[in-house]
């Protein structure tokens, strides 16, 4: 008698590799779930839930000056850690959101805010999209109106019709 067939050996090897991959995927999932707190950027906690909420709100509202498009809450660089510590001290001192914003803007400029202030200096930033939308709609209306007038004046036959 001969040993197991080639197909049986391949099927057993395939089943074993599937089990190994399933165990590997499960292990990665478990390690990710267990290690998740170790990857936390900011673990700052307040005793007062209102202060904690204000702290979280402000750290998500301020931009990391080094990462540019990341909030200081989500950034891992040292500058963001310093800014989070500064926000922590301001919140602990009882400052309001507006006072914290004003302090940060005075120190780092308006660029630190994810939502720019609405004032005369940056009015174009807020009005620009509306102006361009209205201008584009006006131009589209004029072009379509001109084309409809040209269609009414066009009495010549189409090339295909002329050849018949």
Question: Residue ranges: pLDDT <50 for 5 or more in a row?
Answer: none
How many distinct folded domains?
3
In oligomeric terms, what are we looking at?
single chain
Query: The CATH topology of the largest domain, please?
Result: Helicase, Ruva Protein, domain 3
Q: Under the CATH scheme, which architecture of the largest domain would be assigned?
A: Orthogonal Bundle
- Give the beta-strand count: 0
Instruction: Give the overall silhouette.
Output: flat
Kindly report the average pLDDT value: 84
Summed up, what is this model?
This protein is mainly α and 164 residues long.
Salient structural properties:
single chain, 0% strand, Helicase, Ruva Protein, domain 3, 6 helices, 164 residues, mainly alpha, 64% helix
Question: In words, what does this structure look like?
Answer:
- The protein has three domains: 8-38; 47-112, Cytochrome C biogenesis protein (Helicase, Ruva Protein, domain 3), CATH 1.10.8.640; 123-153.
- It has helices spanning 6-35, 49-61, 78-92, 97-108, 123-153, 159-162.
- It is 64% helix and 0% strand.
- The chain has 164 residues and is mainly α.
- The longest helix has 31 residues, at 123-153.
- The mean pLDDT is 84.
What layout of secondary structure does this protein have?
Blueprint: H1 6-35, H2 49-61, H3 78-92, H4 97-108, H5 123-153, H6 159-162
Helix pairs in contact: 2-3
């Amino acid at each position: 008698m001969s040993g197991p067939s080639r197909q049986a050996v391949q099927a057993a090897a395939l089943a074993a590799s599937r089990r190994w991959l399933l165990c590997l995927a499960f292990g990665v999932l478990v390690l990710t779930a267990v290690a998740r707190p170790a990857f936390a950027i900011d673990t700052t906690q307040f005793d007062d839930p209102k202060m904690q909420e204000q702290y979280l709100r402000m750290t998500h509202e301020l931009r990391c000056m080094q990462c540019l498009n990341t909030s200081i809450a989500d950034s891992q660089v040292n500058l963001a850690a310093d800014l989070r510590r500064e926000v922590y001290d301001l919140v602990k001192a009882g400052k309001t959101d507006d006072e914290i914003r004003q302090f940060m803007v005075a120190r780092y400029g308006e660029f630190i805010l994810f939502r720019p202030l609405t004032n005369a200096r940056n009015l174009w930033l807020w009005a620009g999209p509306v102006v361009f939308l209205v201008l584009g709609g006006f131009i589209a209306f004029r072009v379509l109106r001109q084309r409809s007038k040209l269609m009414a004046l066009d009495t010549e036959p189409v090339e295909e019709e002329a050849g018949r």
